[in-house]
Amino acid sequence: MAMFNTDWDNSQWVRGILKTHGWTRIVKAGKKSSRMMWLLIQHADNDPALQVMALRQIEPLMKTGQFDKADYALLTDRVSLATVGTQYYGSQLSCQHNHYAPFSLDAKGSDPKVLDARRASMGLMSEAKYLTYLPPHC
């Protein structure tokens, strides 16, 4: 419960910063500050509204090269899973038949060529290579 409360407090703090200053100001504070803020948001699964707000602010920055495409893709998948129940880039994994695999891909994402093309467009490694970084069994 203490961890949940800390996560909630962190997400409320981040929400205040995004509402007051916006992500553009966070980016101007430096790469390390931006990355730390992104990590708090990426793992704020108890506050999907915060993740959506951040994603909307990050998208134009990602398109102009001011925000990392891979991090944008990871947050996109988390938001998509929370809001529509599927993901686009296959970054969120679950244990399926004792092996890690992408959790709930959209219809076209089940084609490995389509999924890998999506991932490559965001600077992510192929799904097969991504899975080699995990234990063979879960």
Walk me through the structure:
The chain has helices at 2-20, 22-28, 31-42, 48-63, 69-83, 112-121, 127-132; strands at 93-96, 99-102. It is mainly alpha-helical and 138 residues long. The longest helix is centred in the first third of the chain and has 19 residues, at 2-20. The chain is globular.
Strand runs, count: 2
Rounded mean pLDDT is: 94
Could you tell me the radius of gyration in angstroms?
16 Å
What global shape is seen? globular
Bin the strand percentage. Answer: 5-15%
| Biggest sheet details | 2 strands, antiparallel
Q: Gap between N and C termini, in Å?
A: 26 Å
Spatial strand order of the main sheet: 1-2
What is the assembly state of the chains in this entry? Answer: single chain
Along the chain, the helix and strand elements come as HHHHHEEHH
* Helical coverage, percent range: 55-70%
Global structural class: mainly alpha
Helix segment count? 7
What's this, in brief?
The chain has 138 residues and is mainly α.
Any chance you could write out the topology, listing elements then pairs?
Elements (H helix, E strand, L loop, with lengths): L1 H19 L1 H7 L2 H12 L5 H16 L5 H15 L9 E4 L2 E4 L9 H10 L5 H6 L6
Antiparallel strand pairs: 1-2
Attribute tags:
138 residues; mainly alpha; two-stranded antiparallel sheet; 6% strand; globular
